[in-house]
Amino acid sequence: MRLDNKTVVITGAASGIGQATAERCAEEGARVIVTDIDTEGGQAVAEAIEEDGGEAEFHELDVTDSDRFQAVVDEVADAYGLDVMVNNAGTGHPGGSLEEIDEEMRDFVIDINIKGVWNGCDAALPHMKEQGSGAIVNVGSLASILGLPKQAAYSTSKAAVLNMTRTVAAEAGPYGVRANAVCPGFTETQMLEGYLAQQEDPEAAREEMAADYPLKRLGKPDEIADAILFLASDESSFVSGHGLVVDGGFSTC
Ligand SMILES: NC(=O)c1ccc[n+]([C@@H]2O[C@H](COP(=O)([O-])OP(=O)(O)OC[C@H]3O[C@@H](n4cnc5c(N)ncnc54)[C@H](O)[C@@H]3O)[C@@H](O)[C@H]2O)c1
Hints:
oxidoreductase, NAD(P)-bd_dom_sf, Dehydrogenase, SDR_fam, 15% strand, globular, 7 strands, KR_dom
């Protein structure tokens, strides 16, 4: 299997892309460390993986808490080693022009989306550098490469994730550590549902969105998880500093 004997830590793994990634990694033989602020959801994901014959454990983790992040990663690395760190936890925000997004909302998004990924890299890198191997996969967005209107805080944060990933790749490469990002287009998760719920006619908005995609549909969490799995596994052993866009062709036309 593609992740046999590997230990994978995933943030925001109680739902959506993180949950799908946890399940795919477990299917490929990894010991999966499911982390999230949602204790109930995270525990349920870990339990379901175990019931299916996989190996998983849940650790409550708010990615904005750097001390707690380091403690969880240290505990995992000491017990099992640390092969893959997936910095997936993220948040969106209600749509609004840059002037309409207040300081509190801006800082909330930046804290989770930028500092949370920074904290994850910061916690994982010493272990990976010391062992001379490891793969970091950060979850960016189409907003890493496009400035989405009414999404200034989100776009700013996700662009930072991509460039942080490149810097980590440059710094950690000499130690045998790779860092990459996955940049999904709109994907059917509760984050998307939250966005659609703000629209006047959510179903019409969903159809309008899908119509803009060459494949005429939105992404599924499993499809993003498969891209993360590729970057986490040895199949991508010469890929580092890359932002893999998984958007059904949206950004190409
Ligand atoms: N769904 C999309 O259309 C889409 C598109 C591009 C990128 N993304 C990115 O994918 C990632 C996963 O999003 P999703 O769509 O699966 O959303 P989701 O809402 O289904 O999952 C996000 C998870 O992150 C957790 N979380 C939120 N704040 C946290 C924190 N401070 N610490 C730890 N966990 C926290 C939530 O509890 C939740 O389980 C995010 O980084 C998001 O920006 C999503």
